[in-house]
Specification:
CATH class of the largest domain in chain A: Alpha Beta
Strand content of chain A: 25-35%
CATH superfamily of the largest domain in chain A: Nucleoside Triphosphate Pyrophosphohydrolase
Oligomer: homodimer
Shape of chain A: elongated
CATH architecture of the largest domain in chain A: Alpha-Beta Complex
Number of domains of chain A: 2
Structural class of chain A: alpha+beta
Number of helices of chain A: 7
Largest interface: A-B, 24 and 24 residues
Radius of gyration of chain A: 19 Å
Chain lengths: ~220, ~220
C-alpha cells in the first residue's frame, strides 16, 4: 500500500538567518515546540502553502514574518535537501535559503523560543540541531564565506552608516580570522557597492569616514 | 474548491547538460513530445517518483538515463523554480541541476529528439524554450562561468588525456572570449586537480605535454 506521503512529498523551506553581533557570527535558531524533534533547536522553517505562497521564496518570507517577526529584503537560495529519510513524516523536500540581518535588529527578535547562537555553538555536537539542519547550516555558512572570499561585501549585515573598520571586522567575523588591512582597503577601492559619506566619527585616533551601501548593491 | 494541484504541487527536475564541441559551448535539449509545450525544445526533465528516487538528485540521474541515455558522475544543483504560473498544470516546483559531458560522448546522444545546440542558439528568441527553461539555462550558464572565472577547471568536459591548450580552449569556449595564456598557465600551476603525464602529443610546434584530472578533483 502506498501512503499519501509517498505520492505527495512534504515540501518546506528552512532559513539560515545570520548576523554579526559583537564581532561574532551568529545564526538565529528556534526551539521546536512540536514533534517531530520537539525541543531541539532548528533553523526557522515551515511548510509550503500553495494557496497562499507565490513561490518558495515567498514561503520563506512568510515563515520569517510569522516565526521570527522579521521582514527581509534579501533572501538567497542555498540548496535543496530531499529524500525519504530526512523527516520521520516521510518523503520530504526542504529548500534552504540564507539571509543576513543587521545586528541592531537581532536583540528585538530574541525571545524565549528564538535565540542567536554563535555558529560554533550551533554546530557543536552538544547542540545537535533538528533533522538535517546541521548539514544545512554548514552549507549556508560555506556559501556565506565563499561570497566574502570572492570579494562580495556583506552590507546587509551593516547598520545604515558604518566605518570601513567596522566592515572589516564583520568580514573577519564571517571568515573566522584576520584580513590584512591593506588587502581589505584595496578590495574596498575596487567596489561599486560603497558610497563614501561626508561624515566622520571620531575614533581613538584620527576621525574615520562613514560609508553607506549603494542602492542595489550585490551580495 | 481547492484542486489537487493546489494541495500537492508538481515536483520535477530539469538538467542543463553542457558540453564543448569544436570550441563551442553547447547544451543538450530535447524536443517535447507531449503537451504542455509540445514540440518546443526543453532542458531534459522529469517528475519526482518518491517510490523510486532516494533524492531529487537521484531523480535527475534517472531522467538523464531514461531521456538522454547518459550516466553522469557529477551533477550540481543550480536553483529552484516555483510558483503557480510556471507550468499550466498548476503550482509546480522544478529543481535545476547542471552537468558537464565530455565532447566525445555528445555525438552518440544526438538523436531525432535530442540535440546539442550552441548556447547562443538555445537562448535566441527564435528557439524560445519551453516553460521557464530560458531563465533556467541562463542561470546554469552563469554558475558555470562563475566557476571558471573563480579558477575551477571544467575537467568533466575533457577526454581522459588532454593538452593544456585544449583545456584553455575549453575554458575560453565557456567564457566566450580569450584568456591570456600566461595568466592561464599560472592558474594551472596553482591547481591540484591536474596531473602531468610522461606522455606527449606532437603539435605544429614542439611536443605538448598531456595531462589528466586527479582523482576526486573539484569543480
Amino acid at each position: 500500500m502506498i501512503s499519501n506521503r509517498e505520492l505527495y512529498p512534504l515540501i518546506s523551506v528552512d532559513i539560515a538567518l545570520f548576523s554579526v553581533v559583537e564581532e561574532t557570527l551568529k545564526v538565529l535558531l528556534v526551539k521546536r515546540a512540536q514533534e517531530p524533534e520537539a525541543k531541539k533547536w532548528a533553523l526557522p522553517g515551515g511548510v509550503l502553502k500553495p494557496d497562499r505562497d507565490i513561490s518558495l521564496e515567498a514561503t520563506a518570507r512568510r515563515v520569517l514574518a510569522d516565526k521570527v517577526a522579521v521582514e527581509l529584503p534579501h533572501l538567497e537560495e542555498v540548496a535543496t535537501y530531499s529524500g525519504p529519510d530526512r523527516d520521520p513524516r516521510g518523503w520530504s523536500i526542504a529548500v534552504l535559503f540564507y539571509a543576513l540581518l543587521p545586528h541592531d535588529q537581532v536583540n528585538a527578535l530574541v525571545r524565549s523560543k528564538v535565540e542567536a547562537l554563535s555558529w560554533e555553538n550551533a554546530l557543536s555536537p552538544e547542540n545537535l540541531l533538528a533533522f538535517d539542519h546541521t548539514a544545512q547550516l554548514q552549507a549556508a555558512l560555506e556559501i556565506l564565506r565563499d561570497k566574502v572570499v570572492s570579494h562580495a561585501l556583506p552590507l546587509h549585515l551593516m547598520p545604515e552608516k558604518f566605518t570601513l573598520t567596522a566592515l572589516q571586522r564583520t568580514c573577519e567575523a564571517i571568515l573566522g580570522g584576520p584580513i590584512d588591512k591593506s588587502v581589505f582597503r584595496r578590495r574596498i577601492r575596487g567596489s561599486h557597492d560603497l558610497i563614501e559619506l561626508d561624515e566622520f566619527v571620531r575614533g581613538a585616533q584620527r576621525p574615520a569616514h562613514l560609508y553607506r551601501a549603494s542602492e542595489g548593491f550585490k551580495f
